[in-house]
């Protein structure tokens, strides 16, 4: 079964999202605190949706 990878439908742990954005985990939490990046809570887990990371990167590149 061939299925295309759709980044926007994926969920990432804070560590995975930090690796993708090439920032530290502590910087991720700063982004959460400032509202620049909105995390999602699943019980005790904090995740970042691919669609949210795409929105963040689009806005970040538009402000350059």
Question: How is this structure best described in words?
Answer:
By secondary structure, the protein is an alpha+beta fold. The protein has one domain. 48% of the residues lie in helices and 17% in strands. The chain has three helices and three strands. It has helices at 14-21, 25-34, 50-62; strands spanning 11-13, 40-42, 45-49. Strands 1-3-2 form a three-stranded antiparallel sheet. It is globular and about 40 Å long. It starts with 10 loop residues before the first strand and ends with a helix. The model has no long low-confidence stretch (mean pLDDT 91).
Distance from N terminus to C terminus (CA atoms, Å) equals 41 Å
Q: What Rg is obtained from the alpha carbons, in whole angstroms?
A: 12 Å
Global shape: globular
Helix content: 40-55%
**How many extended strands?**
3
Give the rounded overall mean pLDDT: 91
